[in-house]
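Notebook, bench 3.
Goal today: get a predicted structure for Guanylate kinase from Jingyaoa shaoxingensis so we can plan the truncation constructs. The sequence was checked against the plasmid map this morning, with no discrepancies at the termini. Length recorded as 198 residues. Pasting the sequence as submitted so the record is complete.
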Amino acid sequence: MARLFYMIGKSSTGKDTIYREVISRTDLDLNPLVMYTTRPIRKGETDGKEYYFVDENVLNELEKEGRVIEKRAYHTIHGIWTYFTVDDEHADLNRKDYLAIGTLESYAQIRNYYGEKLVVPVYIQVEDGLRLERALKREKQQPVPKYEELCRRFLADQADYAEEKLAKAGIDRRFSNDKDIMSCVEEVAAFIRAGQKK
Ligand SMILES: Nc1ncnc2c1ncn2[C@@H]1O[C@H](COP(=O)(O)OP(=O)(O)OP(=O)(O)O)[C@@H](O)[C@H]1O
């Protein structure tokens, strides 16, 4: 049976980094399920890789066509950034295994859309102080660091990933990325491999 391994976690827990490592493991044969966003592209990102970077008009068109599975809008200090998943020609969930990154909320909606058996959550966590340090270091490397946005996201994450919400969504397994990134990658890869055999 095909599966969608859905990676979630607060900002700067290492999801993108772990995602890149895990998806490159040819033995796992995972396909990317790339989401869409209206947020501006960051330095080092590629359209169609981390996200499809589109504008509001494209989002409105896709919604009219009934192809938006889930969407979430963030009221940032730079305007509204919408992240969304589209039932498009890239998703062949009947035959292939996929790896995606999303939020706890989008996970719940995707699971409702595709079903519990198909969507497997992979929750990444990092101790908050360490996570804030990593977020700041990453932001400093941007041409125009957006520190207010970093703080907003940090605080929003505390509410979005509250323990009761994790419990309600049925997240019982956690992958810690407090230490060396590769040990977390190995743990996630082993979990996916075991899930593929079930
Ligand atoms: N184990 C680790 N040790 C040290 N630094 C790490 C580790 N894992 C990730 N990082 C660094 O932490 C920063 C955040 O990682 P990354 O961008 O992958 O997080 P993310 O969860 O995808 O964040 P966001 O959701 O905000 O996009 C990056 O600069 C990354 O290089």
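The beta strands are 4-8, 30-32, 35-37, 51-53, 68-76, 79-86, 97-101, 119-125, 174-176. The CA atoms of residues 8 and 123 lie 5 Å apart.
Flagging this for group meeting.
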